[in-house]
């Protein structure tokens, strides 16, 4: 049977599109799964019906990925159906133009990061970067070249460099780290600077020929080169490095232990590579029992981190053996066991006399380990306000309720942590049950971009100050900042500096147009976070210069 006969009610031909839109099961089961999530700006904009269908389809998607969202170029979070992934927003020039049409520009706050993002995607054609520079005049900096090198996009790197994009040693470093030998060679042939991190990158990625070439061309190295090879298990590279005079130190042995590379550790020790307590600590953390025993047999040293790491990762036998053989421990062992809910380890440690303190309860509450928290309290473990604060910070209302029902103290930190984490229901419960709050709650809600929480807090009498405005500026939320100012919230010089730290030029521009003060910290922060376009713009607009302050 043909597709048209399946879709047509009378087998008389294809369905009209508007009729087809009413066939919900076709869209949910067949069409939209083919499209996939991450295209909301394009699919949802077709019409209201398709917008609704796309949202309903999104509810059927299990385990959505952790992705970088095109609205927040600096934030990675679990995807929702109303997101547009930046790889789709910059798939080609047409998609980019659609995304940046006038009524959607406000959804893309980090315009200073657009060129960097295009290079970072790794799949966008060069024409998209050309569009961003020529048509939209978006700024760029060395991060654009860096990301092009990371992805092996020599075409983008060439075009960017030929058209005046700055670069720095990170271009060569990323090319080496990701194994793009041809990119590294081209960059050096065209004058890109480098440093010892290039050798580190080649050793880290296991590219011996690249490493040899770098040394033949006088690239410097240091002890981190050996530690990179050891951690990643590149035995032949480590041998070559040592034979050719590359320095090493204790980090080489601890890196081998971290990666579980026993033979590398043995060889390094036999060749007089130094070690310290970190080697045992990382062997225990990784559960490498044979390695840990061997280290001690060879005269290695340990400290309390060995026990706390074993407790944290649930390596009970390692912890027992370490304690029986004289390894010291401290309160961190119990706190680590509580954090991960290893109640059997916590019980045993206490039976053996391991000390504890308030952090055991805080860690248990912070991870929602109510049974562990109950046992700890029943057995005399102290607690303090941090127990409630950590439960609130991570959204564990059950742990918070139990703690309060059993007399745990709290303070305003619980509300500010709840607001900063977006835990609205927990915050409401805390306030209903008498938890104090202060100006930190408003600042945390604004800084996290939680507009609904901020509005509710203000409506219910939560105080605010200048930090609330700087929090919204630092999170790129101009809509929140505008509302704050309309509602009478004060601001100060930190508002511009906070926006500069995130690369939000449009927020600084709006703030300045509306009388927000600034100082030299705006330029200092912008330059320090790589947002040179903001530093240049601010200086041109008369912002005080941190390097050359005005005389007189």
From TrEMBL:
It comes from Seminavis robusta. SUPFAM superfamilies: Ankyrin repeat, Pseudo ankyrin repeat-like. This is Ankyrin repeat protein.
């Amino acid at each position: 049977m043909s597709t048209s006969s399946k879709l047509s009610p009378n087998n008389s031909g294809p369905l009209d599109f508007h009729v087809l839109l009413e066939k919900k099961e076709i869209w949910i089961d067949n069409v939209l799964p083919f499209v996939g999530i991450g295209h909301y700006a394009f699919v949802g904009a077709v019409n209201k019906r398709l917008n609704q269908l796309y949202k309903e389809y999104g509810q059927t998607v299990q385990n959505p990925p952790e992705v970088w969202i095109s609205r927040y170029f600096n934030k990675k979070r679990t995807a929702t159906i109303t997101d547009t992934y930046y790889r789709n927003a910059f798939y080609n020039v047409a998609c980019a133009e659609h995304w940046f049409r006038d009524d959607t520009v406000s959804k893309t706050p980090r315009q200073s990061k657009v060129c960097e993002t295009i290079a970072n995607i790794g799949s966008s054609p060069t024409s998209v970067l050309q569009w961003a520079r020529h048509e939209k005049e978006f700024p760029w900096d060395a991060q654009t070249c860096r990301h092009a090198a990371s992805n092996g996009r020599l075409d983008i790197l060439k075009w960017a460099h030929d058209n005046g994009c700055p670069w720095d040693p990170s271009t060569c470093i990323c090319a080496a780290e990701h194994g793009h030998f041809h990119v590294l060679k081209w960059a050096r042939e065209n004058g890109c600077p480098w440093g010892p991190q290039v050798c580190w990158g080649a050793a880290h990625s296991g590219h011996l020929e690249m490493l040899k070439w770098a040394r033949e061309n006088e690239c410097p190295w240091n002890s981190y080169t050996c530690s990179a090879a050891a951690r990643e298990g590149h035995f032949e590279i480590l041998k070559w490095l040592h034979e050719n005079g590359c320095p090493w130190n204790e980090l080489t042995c601890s890196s081998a232990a971290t990666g579980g590379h026993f033979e590398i550790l043995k060889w390094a020790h036999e060749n007089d590579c130094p070690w310290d307590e970190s080697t045992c600590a990382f062997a225990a953390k990784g559960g490498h029992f044979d390695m840990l025993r061997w280290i001690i047999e060879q005269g290695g040293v340990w400290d309390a981190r060995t026990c706390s790491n074993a407790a944290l990762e649930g390596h009970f036998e390692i912890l027992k053996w370490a304690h029986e053989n004289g390894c010291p421990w401290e309160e961190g062992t119990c706190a680590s066991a509580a954090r991960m809910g290893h109640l059997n380890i916590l019980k045993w440690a206490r039976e053996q006399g391991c000390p504890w303190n308030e952090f055991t309860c805080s860690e248990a509450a912070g991870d929602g380990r109510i049974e562990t928290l109950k046992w700890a309290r029943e057995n005399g473990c102290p607690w303090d306000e941090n127990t409630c604060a950590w439960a609130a910070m991570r959204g564990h209302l059950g742990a918070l309720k139990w703690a309060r029902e059993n007399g745990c103290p709290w303070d305003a930190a619980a509300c500010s942590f709840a607001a900063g984490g977006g835990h609205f229901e927990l915050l409401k419960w805390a306030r209903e049950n008498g938890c104090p709050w202060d100006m930190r709650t408003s600042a945390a809600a604004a800084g996290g971009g939680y507009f609904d929480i901020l509005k509710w807090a203000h409506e219910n009498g939560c105080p605010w100050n200048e930090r609330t405005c700087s929090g919204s500026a630092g999170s790129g939320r101009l809509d929140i900042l505008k509302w704050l100012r309309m509602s009478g919230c004060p601001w100060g010089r930190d508002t511009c500096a906070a926006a500069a730290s995130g690369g939000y030029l449009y927020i600084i521009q709006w703030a300045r147009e509306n009388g927000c003060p600034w100082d030299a910290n705006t330029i200092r922060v912008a330059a320090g976070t790589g947002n040179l376009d903001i530093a240049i713009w601010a200086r041109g607009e008369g912002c005080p210069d941190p390097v050359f302050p005005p005389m007189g």
